[in-house]
Design goal:
The complex is a heterodimer of chains A (111) and B (112).
Chain A (H helix, E strand, L loop, with lengths): L4 E3 L2 E4 L5 E6 L6 E8 L3 E9 L2 E5 L6 E5 L5 E5 L8 E8 L6 E2 L3 E5 L1
Parallel strand pairs in A: 2-11
Antiparallel strand pairs in A: 1-3, 3-8, 4-5, 4-9, 5-6, 7-8, 9-10, 9-11
Chain B lengths: L3 E3 L4 E4 L4 E7 L6 E7 L6 E7 L2 E5 L2 E6 L4 E6 L8 E8 L8 E2 L3 E6 L1
Parallel strand pairs in B: 2-11
Antiparallel strand pairs in B: 1-3, 3-8, 4-5, 4-9, 6-7, 7-8, 9-10, 9-11
Classes of the chains: A mainly beta (111), B mainly beta (112).
C-alpha cells in the first residue's frame, strides 16, 4: 500500500456521461497531482493542487476539472465523456524533498 | 520535440544480464531525476531519486545522471524475472511541489 488511495478502481460508463474520481494523498502530503495514462501517450500531466490551490495545469481538457478539499483529498471530474477518454487515471502526492507516490489508479472505460 | 525521450522498447534479456535503460531530455533546467517501475495495471513505484549529475546506487540498481549531455541511465545488475515491468524516467525542475515530466516508458522482460 503506497499510502495514496484512489477510488473507484474501475469505472465503466457511456459516452456523454460525467464521472468523479477521488484521491486521498499520503498523510502529510500537501501536493496532489493527476495524470492520465493511455497506451499511445504515456503518463500525461493533467493538473496539480497544493494545499487546496491549483498550482499547475498540463494538457487538461476543458471538459475536465479538479479540486482539492480542506482535508486535502482531491477529486477529478470528467464530463461529456468520449471514447478517447478511456485510460488509467493516476493520482500522486508528494512532500518537499522526495519523489511522487502514486496511487493504484482508476481504470476508466467509456463505451 | 518531447521534453523527455525514452526508447519504448520492448527490451528482452536473459536472467542475470545487466540491463541499461536510458532517457534524454531537452530542458536544461531539470535538476531532479527519478526512475519509476510500473507493473502491469499498477501505479508507478519510485525506484531511484537523484539530484544533479553523478551516480547513485541502491542494491542491484544504479542511476546515473550526465547533465552536460542531458542523459540519464538506470542499470540493473543480476536481473531477475521479477524485474519485468515498464520503467519510466521522470524529471523536474525543483523538489516537492513541482510537476514531473515522464518519458514514454521502456517495457522490459527478463527471461528465466
Amino acid at each position: 500500500d503506497s499510502g495514496v488511495t484512489q477510488t473507484p478502481k474501475h469505472l465503466i460508463t457511456a459516452t456523454g456521461q460525467r464521472v468523479t474520481l477521488r484521491c486521498s494523498p499520503r498523510s502529510g502530503d500537501l501536493s496532489v497531482y493527476w495524470y492520465q495514462q493511455s497506451l499511445d501517450q504515456g503518463l500525461q500531466f493533467l493538473i496539480q493542487y497544493y494545499n487546496g490551490e491549483e498550482r499547475a495545469k498540463g494538457n487538461i481538457l476543458e471538459r475536465f476539472s479538479a479540486q482539492q478539499f480542506p482535508d486535502l483529498h482531491s477529486e477529478l471530474n470528467l464530463s461529456s465523456l468520449e471514447l478517447g477518454d478511456s485510460a488509467l487515471y493516476f493520482c500522486a502526492s508528494s512532500a518537499t524533498g522526495d519523489g511522487y507516490t502514486f496511487g493504484s489508479g482508476t481504470r476508466l472505460t467509456v463505451v | 520535440q518531447k521534453e523527455v525521450e525514452q526508447d519504448p522498447g520492448p527490451l528482452s534479456v536473459p536472467e542475470g544480464a545487466i540491463v541499461s535503460l536510458n532517457c534524454t531530455y531537452s530542458n536544461s533546467a531539470f535538476q531532479y531525476f527519478m526512475w519509476y517501475r510500473q507493473y502491469s495495471r499498477k501505479g508507478p513505484e519510485l525506484l531511484m531519486y537523484t539530484y544533479s549529475s553523478g551516480n547513485k546506487e541502491d542494491g542491484r540498481f544504479t542511476a546515473q545522471v550526465d547533465k552536460s549531455s542531458k542523459y540519464i541511465s538506470l542499470f540493473i545488475r543480476d536481473s531477475q524475472p521479477s524485474d519485468s515491468a515498464t520503467y519510466l524516467c521522470a524529471m523536474s525542475v525543483g523538489t516537492g511541489a513541482q510537476k514531473l515530466v515522464f518519458g514514454q516508458g521502456t517495457r522490459l522482460t527478463i527471461n528465466p
